Amino acid sequence: MQLQQLLPPGPAWDPELYPMPAIVADAIAAELARVDARAADLLSEMFPGTLRELLSDWERVMGLPDECQGNTASPSGRLREVLRRFSDAGRQDPLYFQEMAQRLGYPEARVIEWRTPRFGLARFGSSQFGSWDCQFVWVVQLGALRAKEPIFGNAQFGDRFGANETDIVECVIRRYAPAHTVVFFDYS
Fold it and tell me: pLDDT (tens digit, 9 = 90+) per residue, 101-117?
């Protein structure tokens, strides 16, 4: 009906005199409405926060599944990871890597940068100053391992309890670490 209202006025388009344009308009109206609805769906798929159908395409663009963290099985977990990657603004300051370790399950994580001794900056007895060989070394102190709580029905034979898999946090931090630096991990 709306398509017929868009036709120009005049006797050539009068459905009583010439019914064929009205019949054709009725025939194609449903398909045009479907195409219009799909175009609106495509607009919602352009942002990961509102997507429903193109999750696998967004994962491919974002480089998921991550080789460090493995595959997230649930669709909500996959969507959360796509959103995190989409909105994450990477940095190269110690606070960024500290927040990254905290997000991966180490709440007491902190980053210590070793600095070269420089005149006016070095203080006697300061433990954060190393030698010239340590000028690009930094340490991620992860603190105590967060205990995993076993959940009945989710635990499988061979699961580790009371410890995090350290290779996940190490893999992720090493991937984003500046290329000229050396990272050490301290679990004490």
Answer: 998 889 999 999 887 76
Both 114 and 168 in one domain: the answer is yes
- Both tokens of 80, joined, read 């959360």
Instruction: Output the pTM of the full model.
Output: 0.62
Distance CA 171, CA 134 (A): 22
Tens digit of pLDDT for each residue in 134-168?
788 899 999 876 555 555 555 555 555 555 556 88
**Considering the chain, what is the average pLDDT of its residues?**
82
- CA angle, 161 then 165 then 171, to 5°: 175
Do 136 and 164 have their domain in common?
Answer: yes
- What is the domain range of residue 62? 51-88
Lookup: tokens for 17: 């005199």
- The b/e string for 114-141 (b: 16+ C-beta within 10 A; e otherwise) is bbeeeeeeeeeeeeebeeeeebebbbbb
- The first and second tokens of residue 166, run together, are 């350290």
Total domains, the chain? 3
Do residues 151 and 71 share a domain? no
β 110-113/137-141 pair status: antiparallel
Give the distance, in angstroms, between the CA of residue 153 and the centroid of all CA atoms in the same chain. Answer: 28
Residues 83 and 96 in one domain: no
